[in-house]
From TrEMBL:
The lineage of its organism: Bacteria, Bacillati, Actinomycetota, Actinomycetes, Micromonosporales. GO terms for biological process: carbohydrate derivative biosynthetic process. It holds the Pfam family Glycos_transf_1. Keywords: Glycosyltransferase, Transferase. This is Glycosyltransferase involved in cell wall bisynthesis. It comes from Micromonospora narathiwatensis. Gene3D superfamilies: Glycogen Phosphorylase B.
Amino acid sequence: MRVGLVCAHAGPSVEGSTVGTYQHVARVAAELAGRGHDVRVHERRDDPDQPESVELDGYRLERAPVGPPAPLATAELVPYVTEFGRWLAQRWSGDWTPEVVHGHYWIGGLAAANAVRETDIPVVQTFHSLGVEQLRHLGQRYDGPGERIPLERALTRAVDIAVAQCNDEVDELTRMGLQRSSVAMVPTGVDTEQFHPDGEAAPREQRARILSVGGLSPRHGQEDVIRAMRLVGDAELIIAGGPPAAQLADHGEARRLRELAERTGVADQVTLVGAVPHDQMATWYRSADVVACTPHYCSAGRVSLEAMACGVPVVGYAMGGLADAVVDEVTGKLVPPGDVRALGVTLRRLLTDNAGRFAYGHAAVDRVRCSYTWERTAGALERLYERVVSRRKPVEAA
């Protein structure tokens, strides 16, 4: 099958992020190519020195010369959606035409739908996050472009199937107007050859270690873990993510978190290590006794799944992808979102329960290997593509 994957963002989608949309797309492409499909990934070129086309892991990556050849924020990409769609349509009118198109994130989905609006090529869409859901959870901290929410609603009317990554997202997409039969639940995958319990661990102190992973911004909830440390006792909190360590001193959110640690009296327990390359994250997970996942919005739960694959129990907020990934009192503990006291008490109890952590860790590894491998994700997408291709239903332009 010829599959076109469209992701408007070039390279990692979030500065300092250990996991994200781009890594997801690249792995899906490689897995599908390994299953014998002819896969091409289309993204925007953001560097004039980048080649227009390159072969990677069995698939072809093609870069569209759309907009300035420089990194652009999501809001700055919106004016180039139509141009990107025209470039895709032209690219697909030659000797290679996809049988199915899969848009990623709302910008990529809009470009894909625009490109095939006059064809019968079916469109599958993974949003990775939804503006209306982010707005609900983040409130005033939501900083997405104003046109995002209405454009996402329009996009739901232009696709054959929307792929949700958690049950909360299924519910949200149906509230946005999609029929339940037009929403498929396909969780993200985990590289179990990279993330596993056996291997090196990052150096650590004798005291217990809590690890928090995510880009440095208020929506990732690191401040909740810092506040909870007052109830935890003698343990260290490592915060991984954000810009490189050398740039942390000039980073506004890093300074805010350090000031918060000072005010709450836990500064000597909190360490910010900055960005960690994704291929080194397993060593950090394995060094931790517990991984705390406290984002204010979470669609995929990738961090929790990677931690679980490394045999580390997770304490997280009962929401989104976390509520699906973490089985409460089996692979970790779930607490009400935003309940800092429950978070602190739960972390303290789990850190003192060696047998409980051991049992949770073993169950976590089994859960990931049974339900969250990339092979399973690719297989589900393959069946989904076959279903929409067999229908060959024309799509409405967004």
